[in-house]
């Protein structure tokens, strides 16, 4: 009688989580990390983003041309006005970066998407809410200053501008969050996985994500280039200091709401939205830059006082399961990771299990 072949033992997969405490930029510094994985993940993200942008925004432009909102001549000359259709497409393109980033992190490093939110494995809504109370006065000051220096001949918004305003209110938070999950999240972590040194991981991750973020905005004016890069650096430092993307998303949302709101509802001129060439900006960008710095500094001080968890805390190995066994948070083994003040952990030890 022929003996059945004995199947080869399954080789255990390397742990998808860090084996020691790490800050947010090094969350992909795991036993699975290789330099090639990080590079390929970032390249795939950029390529997928460009594809999504071409499909959604290309479709929106085709709709605008078909209904006469944009002429073929203006389209070929890249003289584009911001229409409701195009604004929805742009914001949905950026919002798509949230699931895209989670999917690529899981595909290349085996790490669940929820770990992209923060080092605690969840989006800390209380942190977002309390941070909003700290930062909101600065952005109200920005809005008031914008209103004070608004043109005197402001007219009652037309139906088109009301539609644009509603789209801004409803989709800008998702648009801002998508940019943060892609730049300060996936790209920063992909670069951070290359280095054992926390400082080097933070430095390279910040510079690379800032460069990609700046290039993605297509600015050709020196003032705008400086603003976008400084904006990216500040939000990278806020993410590192607070251990998650919540407050970076908050600041990005505040900035975009005030900027788009004043442009759409006060100036009622969308013909210059996509004009970022030389001479399109000037010292006026210093105002949002100063507001960003002040609000980020206030959040930094508050985060220090609140004692937010800013490093991932792996669970200790269970001696009963062997010295080489490191239970992964979310696997159900071992105690839950430490909680940060002001938030309730949602994980395998809760009723939801996710």
UniProtKB/TrEMBL annotation:
Residues 331-354 are annotated as: Disordered. Residues 166-258 form the CAAX prenyl protease 2/Lysostaphin resistance protein A-like domain. This is Membrane protease YdiL, CAAX protease family. It comes from Microlunatus sagamiharensis. The chain crosses the membrane at residues 39-60, 80-104, 125-149, 161-178, 199-217, 223-240, 247-265, 285-303. One of its GO terms (biological process) is proteolysis. Keywords: Hydrolase, Membrane, Protease, Transmembrane, Transmembrane helix. One of its GO terms (molecular function) is endopeptidase activity.
């Amino acid at each position: 009688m022929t003996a059945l072949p004995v199947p080869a033992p399954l080789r255990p997969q390397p742990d998808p989580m860090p084996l020691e405490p790490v800050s947010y930029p090094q969350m992909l510094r795991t036993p699975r990390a290789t330099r090639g994985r990080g590079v390929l993940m970032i390249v795939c993200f950029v390529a997928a983003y460009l594809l999504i942008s071409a499909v959604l925004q290309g479709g929106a432009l085709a709709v605008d041309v078909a209904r006469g909102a944009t002429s073929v001549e203006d389209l070929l000359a890249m003289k584009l006005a911001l229409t409701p259709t195009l604004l929805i497409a742009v914001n949905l393109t950026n919002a798509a970066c949230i699931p895209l980033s989670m999917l690529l992190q899981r595909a290349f490093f085996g790490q669940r998407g929820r770990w992209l939110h923060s080092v605690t494995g969840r989006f800390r809504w209380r942190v977002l809410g309390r941070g909003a109370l700290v930062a909101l006065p600065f952005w109200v000051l920005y809005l008031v200053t914008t209103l004070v220096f608004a043109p005197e001949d402001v007219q009652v918004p037309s139906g088109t501008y009301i539609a644009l305003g509603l789209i801004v209110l409803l989709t800008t938070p998702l648009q801002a969050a998508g940019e943060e999950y892609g730049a300060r999240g996936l790209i920063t972590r992909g670069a951070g996985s290359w280095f054992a040194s926390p400082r080097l991981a933070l430095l390279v991750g910040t510079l690379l994500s800032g460069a990609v973020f700046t290039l993605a905005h297509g600015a050709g004016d020196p003032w705008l280039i400086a603003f976008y890069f400084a904006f990216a650096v500040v939000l990278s430092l806020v993410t590192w200091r607070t251990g998650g993307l919540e407050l970076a998303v908050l600041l990005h949302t505040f900035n975009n709401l005030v900027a788009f709101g004043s442009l759409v509802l006060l100036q009622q001129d969308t013909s210059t939205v996509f004009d970022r060439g030389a001479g399109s900006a000037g010292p006026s960008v210093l105002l949002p830059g100063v507001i960003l710095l002040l609000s980020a500094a206030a959040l930094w001080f508050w985060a220090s006082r609140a004692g937010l968890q800013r490093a991932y805390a792996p669970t200790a190995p269970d001696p009963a399961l062997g010295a080489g066994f490191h239970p992964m948070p979310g696997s159900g083994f071992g105690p839950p990771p430490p909680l940060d003040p002001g938030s309730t952990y949602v994980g395998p030890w809760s009723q939801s299990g996710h």
